[in-house]
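Everyone, describe these structure tokens:
***
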Amino acid sequence: MSKTSFFGLLLMLCAGVAIPAHAWQKILRSPERGVLCDRYICANDQGISRALTEKYLGQRAAEKVFSQGDFDLTEFTFANGVFCDVKERLCRQDRYYGADGKRSGAVSGKYTKLLFGNRPGTTQ
């Protein structure tokens, strides 16, 4: 087998490896600028978006989320636990509160920037 054939075969084998379902739940992806998706929802700087959820996750996923009745689209927690708040324009590592009644989760600079385009503590 030639070197080229070997590496081609290796590349095809690597590309065929599936991500286990439990790992996918922990992944947040940004399919376009200003959009974050997990395996259930997609959101932008306005909140959870039916159109984006349908575009990137399919009609069935969008119907499942939006058939749950009225809920606040501007505060949401992704499957990996990252919590985002459109009013604060911040994403945090979790959605919990401290003893002082304020959000206790550490701010996630990475996801805040991906979703809102700004660094924590700054405005656009």
About this structure: Confidence is low (pLDDT under 50) at residues 3-25. Strands lie at 36-37, 42-44, 47-48, 75-77, 83-85, 90-92. The two ends are 56 Å apart (CA to CA).
